[in-house]
Amino acid sequence: MAATQTQTEQRPKTVRASKSVSFWSSTSPSKTATGTATPPESLHDEILPHKHGGARTNAGFTGLALEFNKQLAYAKPTDEKGIEIPSAQRVFRARDPNKQYLPGQPRIRFGEFKYNVDGEEGTLTGYLKRWHLTPDLDDLLPFMRYVFVQTPAYEHINTLHHHAAHGRKIIVDEEPGLHLVWYYEQIFMKPIPKYFYSKAFWDWVKEYDKKLEKACVGFMRTYYYIIGFEIDFHEACEKRLIPKKDDGEFPTYEEWCLFMVPFSVVGDDFVNRRYHYGELRLTRINRTAMFFRFKLAYFHLLPQWGAYLSHILAPLITAFAVCSVILNSMQVTLAAIEVANETDHVIPDPVGWRRFMNVSLYFPVIVILSIALVIGAALMGMFAMGLKDLFKGNSVREKKKAGYANVGRKSHGIIW
């Protein structure tokens, strides 16, 4: 024991310098007075001091510090005597044989389910990939450095209570591609699923799919910054952003802080591209999708075509209003020049005014052509939208007749 203490004392303090409280134990993993396990020491070696202060975190996710949900198991099957079969592979399942489904989502069951009408998305792996991976957003983010620069820092996240200072409303949405995406007075947040409380889930996903693990770990890391104070924790519980434990109660704030420590030290090398960033501005993502992917939007808040066109045309109408003021000013100036010529009034700098008259001849023509071009583009756009809806409707009917599953399901507004 003395040797262990000596080694611990000699080890440099490498935890986050900006935090006054450390949740790491100075001894080997053990049980605390409350019966909860303390985190392993191994992450100490991964958290290195940064030359500019704070800590440089580039550690991978090593497992939960606390487990709030024990409904799942990832172990080898047992024989009739309850002994594990050594030659068998580990199986991911629920401990209760009567509740063979994902905690918090009874629609997703383990094994074959004859009533599954959701196709691939109704399976365990299909569901997890659909609701945790962000392929469309990952594909767009590299281009955001060229158009409307976005801060590439995962710490770029406001605490939950601070959004009220910006006048933003928190909208809880399960769509992973909208997590921490904001649009003027609103910001979307994806709630934490209940199965993220399970150690068995993290053991399984680590072996099953590294890409999925990176997405899940990156998502959880955002909550280290979303919930920075106890007021954020209680607000998150009220909005159901945090799930309850097995006993039906929310964890305490102290338990939550300890639970989040392993996620807080994870570096960018161990999360997917989306979570290299914090909060994202929807208007910039939409423009990036328009310029680089030739899509009308990444996510459209305006479900009606008319409302969408009005939103697009509003800046153009403003520009034409400015042009109208300029044309009226030109008209007044030209009228004044004509009066001066009729009254033999001497006009200063006649060469300059001749240039102005030449500009006045061509500028209205340019404005007229621009208006015609915009009106033509709007009419063509409406025609193309109508054709698109017509062909899509016919395609859905044909696929339904052919027996395809999940035909015509809403895209939740993501790139269309």
User: What percent of residues are in strands?
Assistant: 5-15%
**Percentage of helical residues?**
40-55%
Instruction: Output the strand order for the largest sheet.
Output: 7-9-8-10
Q: Quick check: average pLDDT?
A: 81
Q: Count the strands?
A: 10
Q: Please identify the structural class as seen in this structure.
A: alpha/beta
Helical run tally: 10
How would you sum up this structure in a few lines?
This protein is of the alpha/beta class and 416 residues long.
Write the layout of secondary structure elements.
Layout: H1 2-10, E1 47-49, E2 55-57, E3 72-75, E4 91-94, E5 101-102, E6 105-109, H2 124-132, H3 135-140, E7 169-172, E8 181-183, E9 186-189, H4 199-208, H5 210-226, H6 230-238, H7 253-264, E10 280-281, H8 282-292, H9 305-342, H10 350-402
Parallel strand pairs: 7-9, 8-10
Antiparallel strand pairs: 1-2, 3-4, 5-6, 8-9
Helix pairs in contact: 5-7, 9-10
InterPro entries: DUF6601
Biased composition (Polar residues): 17-39
Pfam families: DUF6601
